[in-house]
Design brief:
mainly alpha, Arc Repressor Mutant, subunit A, Serine Threonine Protein Phosphatase 5, Tetratricopeptide repeat, four-stranded antiparallel sheet, three-stranded antiparallel sheet, 21 helices
């Protein structure tokens, strides 16, 4: 839809002014689409919260919505006191009041199927929870969106994002997850060659599966140039920078990701984890505690915090933090392995072995990453078994073997094969 010199292109998930892209973060862009699709109708604050964040999401909803509206008005050059586009209904919500213009002088402004957009947004909300069950839910929503409108690119990127995260979290073998992610990202780029989100997926595949640091960095920088406000590009680029030991740059990128999207658990929580990997433990603890408070009950925020607590020998607290989020995490091998490690180091060996048996049972019924099994054995000081499993993970191209320079693995990095692999991580 066009209004004045502006155009909202839902297919490209983009707003343009005079044909040039306007830099908008994900949440203001989703809010813009929501307002445009409901033009002339009052959209309540509760509706906005439910659709974009979900009713059960713990955020400062007043300030979060206000911030998104303020960013939209700044992008549109709109005045809250004398609005031409977004009208505030005090205490209620907002109404999009600009007059639409149809036809585009040769530019295709056909909106995607409305239900496809709704399915995509539901999928994004699920994906942001960062749990095994949530990825399955997100995939189902994204597939519905694709079935409704095959020319709508964002759901294809959503599918790619899910498979990347399944690879990272050890929910699928790398050889299964990453090719599926690559295919979906390339399909999205066939529709829109300038989708920063799709390029970010390809960059992460270059990083986590191909182990091609130069290509990954070039692709991340290209994505960031296309959309400097895309938080995931900054977050995943930060991870690459930690892998190759460029920690100060990594911290800056992680902080930029959080600035772009402070209310999503991934960008918000990753700052603390990046500081941990830089061995700045007090700073990491402070940031991880903030993110756990903001994202109450989020397993990934607890997982990041637990690493810092383990490093500070607060094993009982790491156990408590992970146990509190175990139900939400489901049978995630990544979560259970770190819980087994925490319990073992807290002296709860029987409970740690029980968790290890759960992991082995799950492995007999599906896939559990050898890297997660290695962490559980490492917690129990079973170093030879842990080292063999780490070697297996390296051979299987498990993405998280890039974590081997972290403090948790100091005890096994003297092994010749592991040391040799870690040396390759410094290659640029």
């Amino acid at each position: 839809m066009r209004f004045g010199r502006f155009e909202v292109d839902e297919k490209a998930f983009q707003m343009r002014e005079g044909g040039r892209p306007v830099r908008l973060e994900r949440i203001p862009m989703e809010l813009m689409i929501m307002l445009v699709r409901n033009r002339s109708r009052l959209v309540t604050r509760d509706e906005i919260l439910a659709q974009i964040w979900g009713m059960n999401h713990y955020i400062e909803s007043e300030s979060a919505i206000n911030t998104a509206i303020r960013k939209l008005r700044r992008a549109l050059g709109d005045d809250a006191a004398h609005p031409r586009m977004i009208e505030t209904v005090p205490g209620k919500g907002y109404r999009f009041i600009a007059n639409p213009q149809h036809g585009s002088g040769g530019v295709n402004t056909t909106a995607p199927d409305p239900e496809a957009v709704r399915c995509f947004l539901r999928g994004r909300h699920a994906w942001n929870k960062k749990t095994a069950g949530a990825y399955d839910t997100a995939l189902a929503h994204f597939q519905k969106a694709i079935d409704r409108d095959a020319a709508y690119a964002p759901p294809l990127v959503g599918v790619a994002h899910c498979y990347v995260m399944m690879g990272i979290h050890g929910l699928k073998p790398a050889a299964d997850a990453y090719p599926l992610a690559r295919a979906a990202a390339n399909a999205a780029l066939e529709i829109d060659p300038n989708l920063a989100a799709a390029l970010t997926v390809l960059a992460d595949i270059s990083k986590g599966y191909d182990r091609d640091w130069k290509t990954a960095e070039r692709q991340f920088l290209q994505a960031i140039q296309l959309d400097p406000e895309y938080a995931i590009a900054h977050q995943w680029y930060a991870n690459l920078l930690t892998i190759v030991g460029r920690h100060e740059e990594a911290i800056a990128q992680a902080e930029e990701a959080r600035r772009c999207d402070p209310l999503s658990v991934g960008p918000s929580a990753f700052v603390g984890y990046t500081l941990y990997r830089a061995r700045r433990y007090d700073d990491a603890l402070r940031e991880c505690m903030k993110s756990v408070e903001l994202h109450k009950g989020a397993p990934i925020a607890a997982w990041f915090l637990a690493h810092v607590l383990i490093q500070k020998s607060s094993f009982e607290e790491a156990d408590r933090v992970l146990t509190r989020t175990s139900q939400a995490a489901g049978e995630s091998g990544m979560h259970l392995a770190l819980l087994a490690f925490s319990k073992a180091r807290a002296g709860k060996h029987r409970q740690a072995y029980e968790i290890l048996q759960r992991l082995k049972l799950a492995q007999s019924q599906g896939y559990i990453s050898p890297f997660d099994l290695a962490i559980a054995h490492l917690g129990l000081n079973e170093y030879e078994t842990a080292i063999e499993l780490i070697k297996k993970a390296i051979a299987e191209r498990v993405m998280r073997v890039t974590e081997l320079p972290m403090p948790m693995f100091d005890e096994v990095r003297a092994n010749a094969e592991i040391a040799k692999f870690c040396a390759t991580l410094r290659c640029e």
